[in-house]
Amino acid sequence: MTPLLIAQIVIVVVVFHALLLSAAAMVWVERRVAAALQQRMGPTRVGWQGLLQPFADVIKLMFKEELRPKAADWFLFALAPIISASCAFAAFAVVPFGAQTTFFGLLGDPLKLQVADVNVAVLVIFAIASMSVYGIVLAGWSSNSKYSLLGGLRSSAQMISYELSYGMALASVLLIGNSLSLTDIVNGQSGYWFHVIPKWFIFLQPVGFLVYLTAGVAETNRAPFDFPEAEQELVAGYHTEYSSMSFAMFFLAEYVNMVTVSAVATDLFLGGWHGPLLPESLGWIWFLIKVGALLFFYVWMRWTLPRYRYDQLMAFGWKILLPLAVVNLLATAAGVLYFGA
Amino acid sequence: MTFFYVFGAVAVIASLLVIAQRNPIYSVLLLIASFGALSGLYVLLDAPFVAVTQIIVYAGAIMVLFLFVVMLLNAPHEETEHDEKIHPLRRPGPMRFGAALAVSLLVELLWALTRGNGEPNAFGEASVSSVRTLGRVLFTEYAFAFEVTSVLILVAMVGAVVLAKRDPRAHT
After folding, report:
1. What confidence tens digit (pLDDT) does each residue in B65-98 have?
2. Bridge-partner residues for A192, per DSSP?
3. Could you tell me the sign of the dihedral formed by the alpha carbons of A130, A131, A132, A136, in that order?
4. Which phi and psi (to 5°) does residue A82 adopt?
């Protein structure tokens, strides 16, 4: 066991638990921010300022009875939440969250703050995002309930539609970054224009960023695009029939997906761990700040905007967002050709 | 080499189980498993781009559509018992034709397998792994085939739209 291998294992364990904790933190943030936006208190009783509320929720969920509809397909019913949760965690494996570091000289060789440095990282994220739809679709189908089935069908239609725009937004960043590796893309965003404006791709790709963010919200099934769940019309959509920890796994997957989408947006558009004041080795603090800001934006949007109508969602995806993304991609390609990468 | 046999076994067994299923949803899922194993084989061949593309295009996009259609048609089980006598494909003529096709496929497969020089690493070093090289070859050497394929898919798409389009006179 070389020190580097041990450090790598430590990173895997830390990232996994950080994601679990971030999901718990997001539950708290979501409830507190929602409460603040609606002029109520939110959870304040469990722990200081209600900080232990998510853990109380998890304990409650663990002791709930695991129900399964009699007519459900038991194998797929059990498999669906596992697919959802594992896809959510797997996508984060290729996301870099800090510059190479030796931990203040603790290690001989510098270590990348990333679980796996894949040279096609952007495509891996896209591939795993496209696989995560199966969890929802299978949950909807195997529950053998009309609400679940409608939720599953809506979700597959929605994710197929928005995946295209999502991919186009990724592709336009790839053209500028001139690489498929997230580490290279982040390193391409260091430095400043005119000593003031950071060289983040959001300034080169404002349209791409908006398309990515919109498609990202749709991909994670968050309001205002939360049609697979849509409490008022579908009870809870694809997870109507789920209870106890299976339900918790869907819940977990949703929040981890949010974190992953925000982290990828940070790497692609917001300069990753690059930022002023802090040295390179503490860049992960900037990374956390940026991801946190995006996550807050997510929550803010959910409690501000009402849900679209379903046909509006499909029309928006195909008739506005996708053409916009295609035009943006073509303009970016022309720009890269003209100005050089 | 161990990984090769693991992925290969998964791919073959999953593919066989696809046609052994009564429930089309399980067939779709097993096909996805088979695609996943294939993509693992591509990784072993030092072609991560092809591996990821396999997942994105086949497992991620096409199979979702398959699943979508199967769910929409709501056909949980293939009807076998009373279907057997009337189904035109179950008559002796088509079945013989199918057997002939299967035999010819088997012969082709044997021919293709014995033709290769048997070296496991037939791909040049880093020739497939680099996306840059792949893109350049695709858009220069194979540009014609590439464009023709895209036109073919476009034709199929237009055809599907035309077929699915509601006749305005029929619904009055």
Report:
1. 888 777 777 655 555 555 555 566 667 788 888 8
2. A198
3. positive
4. -65, -45
What average pLDDT does range B14-28 have in this prediction?
85
A175 in contact with B, Cβ within 8 Å: no
| Residue A123: inside a domain | yes
What share of chain A in percent tops pLDDT 70?
A: 91
| Interchain proximity B49–A120, CB inside 8 Å | yes
Q: How many domains does chain A have?
A: 1
Are the beta carbons of A137 and B71 separated by less than 8 Å? yes
- A134 with B55: Cβ contact below 8 A: no
Q: Is A127 in contact with B60 (Cβ distance < 8 A)?
A: yes
Cβ-nearest to A126 among B49, B56, B129: B56
Identify the domain containing residue B162 by its residue range: 130-172
The DSSP bridge partners found for residue A168 are: none
Does A176 touch chain B if contact means CB atoms closer than 8 Å? no
Minimum-distance CB partner of A160 among B29, B53, B64: B64
SS (H, E, C) chain B: CHHHHHHHHHHHHHHHHHHHCCCHHHHHHHHHHHHHHHHHHHHHCCCHHHHHHHHHHHHHHHHHHHHHHHHHHCCCCCCCCCHHHHCHHHCHHHHHHHHHHHHHHHHHHHHHHHHCCCCCCCCCCCCCCCHHHHHHHHHHCCHHHHHHHHHHHHHHHHHHHHHHCCCCCCCC
pTM over 0.90: no
Contact A153 B59 (CB under 8 A): no
CATH number of residue B34's parent domain: 1.20.120.1200
